[in-house]
Design brief:
Blueprint (H helix, E strand, L loop, with lengths): L1 H6 L2 E6 L2 E6 L1 H30 L4 H16 L8 H7 L9 H32 L14 H13 L21 H12 L5 H16 L1 H15 L5 H10 L11 E4 L10 H20 L7 E2 L3 E2 L11 E4 L6 E4 L5 E6 L2 E6 L1 E2 L2 E2 L2 H13 L13 H4 L2 H11 L3 H11 L4 E4 L11 H13 L12 E5 L5 E5 L6 H19 L19 E2 L6 H19 L13 H6 L4 H17 L5 E6 L8 E5 L3 H11 L5 H23 L5 H14 L4 H7 L5 E3 L23 E3 L8
Parallel strand pairs: 8-12, 12-13, 16-18
Antiparallel strand pairs: 1-2, 3-14, 3-19, 4-5, 6-7, 8-9, 9-15, 10-11, 13-14, 16-17
Helix pairs in contact: 3-5, 4-5, 5-6, 7-8, 9-23, 11-12, 11-17, 14-18, 20-21, 20-22, 21-22, 23-24
Protein name: carnitine O-palmitoyltransferase
Pfam family, one: CPT_N
Membrane topology: Multi-pass membrane protein
Length: 719
């Protein structure tokens, strides 16, 4: 019980001679160091707030302006055109200051006002520049002089050393598309999926909506866009994610995989030590806002809002809707192994634990032979099943006593860690089955060995392979991709391992061991757990997974053919689906809208008229190859156009979704919106950008490539 001794700073006993006080110097030291660390973080956040608030200028530029103005005043030159003198005349000094002091104070006030005006002008200029998105529609590699000048101005006004959130207030707001344009694009997207009569009917519904109900809903939506930072994101988070009452396992959460061919060490505790430490280093950079914003074309900043809730976050179940709980800091992680839960402190003596010390903590857990307490082993199944039973159970069985304390430790952890007792990963002798098992393990596992409500559930397998399961409501996959690439690269190329496969360095043996969480889970609660587990297992058993490595060619070859790799894959999917089903279907592809403040995603409707013409030509043996190639290029160009429109705020589906939400608030029934929002997406696709950080040279180390990640099968219906 070393952790109990660490928790007590002093003890006292009452004796006939008075009170005998015993202070624990070690505990007091830890209290002092913890408080010191907390104050350092507060000061750093305050400093970063100032730097972000004046970016792209800097506080030092204020001093430069002040010195320049004062210097010109001493040179008998008035840079203010008389304003300094007017400020001096209105100073309420009442004769307490000398003439020289009044002049300096007036110059100081004028230069400060001038500096604030310059900062505001620079920020507004940058915002105006970033509101231009015509560069996306220009052929790659052939920008006209006007775009080159625009790009140069963006680089000049973007500054040199931005912090993570420096560009947030300079990013434009997501615009509300014109109702007429959305109706036109919607009809164009469904035309290849409907026969003549069906399309005429849909045209009539769209026309009626555009003339009658639509304008009223559009007015409210524009009003929201003027008031809110982003007119989509808060409703999208609430209604698509947090209000869903079904299981988030498989249906919402997604996963990321380890290197495909490499296992840096076969020691489970060592791999956990390095990668957990790497994730904590990333969290420290994020806290200090040292992570550079993602830049498109190496110059166009993307929104960083989604990074804010990456760590120390948890989804709290509710009866009608869930909520997201986010803490500014967390000093521990929660670890699961063979049905037991542990709390592991991340700091000692005011510093972050070294990888070798985390390895020692993980090894202590692996060596622990204690058995799970009643109901403990399958407890996490509550987070894998339906949300309402979990919300009721949380209120009934986890609102007091040891259950409440232990649950809070999990929910307030920096992230959740599972030391898995299975071996996973790619095996050359059985590549398909091994990857299928690996992916399914990360997606749902045993349905009770991941805490699906945590923003991040980190999995370390018995053979040293790792993976990640992420809750979806707080952010999209590219955000996790950024973290994951950093973790993998830091693990292998910065931290490394000894020849024996252990983490480098010598651990401090005085660090308190992991703390076993205690539970009082009665039989009624165990019954709820088993019902949730049954629901989750049925869902997991219903998932058919098939993944395989493809190395015949990659995006490099596709680009050399002057075709977008994304468009290439989407056309291949359309062709494969038609060959399999003999029909076309509504196809969902996610694109990001992070060119706008707090932007998340938009839908690209990949099944276009051009795509269907290409597919039908491929199915026609009488068509010449030249004609097929021509139709393929037209389909790829159309897909690229759709993708660019989605990224620049002129997509279809988020606009229709928000119009539908407004109609529900107003109590207005719209046959058009009801039908549109009930259409199932039978083919749902997505992609995650690769090599966001360029920390690994894949030309030099081709084997250090991640297996990527994925989502469960979905059929999105918003009604």
């Amino acid at each position: 019980m070393a952790e109990a001794h660490q928790a007590v700073a002093f003890q006292f006993t009452v004796t006939p001679d008075g009170i005998d006080l015993h202070l624990s110097h070690e505990a007091l030291k830890q209290v002092y160091l913890s408080g010191l660390r907390s104050w350092k973080k507060r000061i750093r956040r305050y400093r970063n707030g100032i730097l972000t608030g004046v970016y792209p200028a800097s506080p030092s530029s204020w001093l430069f302006v002040v010195v320049a103005v004062i210097a010109t005043m001493y040179a008998r030159v008035d840079p203010s055109l008389g304003m300094i003198e007017k400020i001096r005349d209105h100073l309420p000094t009442n004769g307490y200051l000398s003439n020289q002091s009044e002049s300096i104070l007036s110059g100081l006030l004028f230069s400060t006002g001038l500096w604030v005006a310059l900062v505001f002008t620079m920020r507004q200029t940058l915002k105006l520049l970033l509101s231009y998105h015509g560069w996306m529609f220009i052929e790659h590699g052939k920008p006209p002089p006007s775009v080159k000048i625009w790009m140069l101005l963006v680089k000049i006004f973007s500054g040199r050393k931005p912090l993570t959130y420096s560009f947030q207030t300079s990013l434009p707001r997501l615009p509300v598309p014109a109702l007429k344009d959305t109706m036109r694009r919607y009809l164009e997207s469904v035309q290849p999926l409907l026969d003549g009569e069906q399309f005429k009917r849909m045209q009539a519904l769209a026309r009626d909506f555009e003339l009658n109900v639509g304008p009223r809903l559009q007015w409210y939506l524009k009003l929201k866009s003027w008031w809110a930072t982003n007119y989509v994101s808060d409703w999208w988070e609430e209604y698509v994610y947090l209000r869903g009452r079904g299981p988030i396992m498989v249906n919402s959460n997604y996963y990321a995989m380890d290197y495909l061919y490499i296992i840096p060490t076969w020691k489970q505790a060592a791999r956990a030590g390095n990668t957990i430490h790497a994730m904590l280093l990333y969290r420290r950079k994020l806290d200090r806002e040292e992570i550079r914003p993602l830049m498109g074309q190496s110059a166009i900043p993307m929104c960083s809002y989604q990074y804010e809730r990456m760590f120390n976050s948890n989804r709290i179940p509710g009866i009608e809707t869930d909520t997201l709980q986010h803490l500014k800091d967390s000093k521990h992680i929660a670890v699961f192994h063979k049905g037991r839960y542990f709390k592991v402190w991340l700091y000692h003596s005011g510093r972050l634990l070294k990888p070798c010390e985390i390895q020692l903590q993980m090894q202590n857990i692996l060596d622990d032979t204690s058995l799970p307490q009643p109901g403990e082993e399958k407890l996490a199944a509550l987070t894998a099943g339906d949300r309402v039973p979990w919300a009721k159970a949380r209120n009934s069985f986890f609102s007091q006593g040891r259950n409440k304390m232990s649950l809070e430790i999990i929910e307030k952890a920096a992230f959740f860690v599972t030391l898995d007792d299975t071996e996973q990963g790619f095996r050359k002798e059985d590549p398909v089955v091994s990857l299928d098992d690996y992916a399914k393990s990360l997606l749902h596992g045993k349905c009770y060995d991941r805490w699906y409500d945590k923003s991040l559930s980190f999995i370390v397998f018995k053979n040293g392979k790792i993976g990640l399961n992420a809750e979806h409501s707080w952010a999209d996959a590219p955000i996790i991709g950024h973290l994951w690439e950093s973790t993998l690269a830091t693990d292998q190329f910065q931290l490394g391992y000894t020849e024996e496969g252990n983490c480098k360095g010598e651990p401090n043996s005085r660090i308190p061991p992991p703390q076993r969480l205690q539970w009082d889970i009665n039989e009624p609660c165990q019954e709820v757990i088993m019902k949730s587990l049954s629901v989750a297992q049925q869902l997991a058993d219903d998932v058919d997974f098939h993944s395989f490595p493809f190395d015949n060619f990659g995006k490099g070859l596709i680009k050399r053919c002057r075709i977008s790799p994304d468009a290439f894959v989407q056309m291949a999917l359309q062709l494969a689906h038609y060959r399999d089903k003999g029909t076309f279907c509504l196809t969902y592809e996610a694109s990001m809208t992070r060119l706008f403040r707090e932007g998340r995603t938009e839908t690209v409707r990949s099944c276009s008229s051009q795509a269907t013409k290409f597919v039908l030509a491929m199915m026609d043996p009488t068509q010449m190859c030249e004609q097929k190639l021509k139709l393929f290029k037209l389909a790829a160009e159309k897909h690229q156009s759709l993708y660019r429109h989605a990224m620049t705020g002129t997509g279809i589906d988020r606009h229709l979704f928000c119009l539908y939400v407004v109609s529900k608030y107003l109590g207005v029934e719209s046959p058009f919106l009801k039908e549109v929002l009930s259409e199932p997406w039978k083919l749902s696709t997505s992609q995650t950008p690769h090599q966001l950080l360029e920390l690994v040279d894949l030309n030099k180390f081709p084997e250090y490539v991640s297996s990527g990640g994925g989502f469960g099968p979905v059929s999105i219906v918003w009604l």
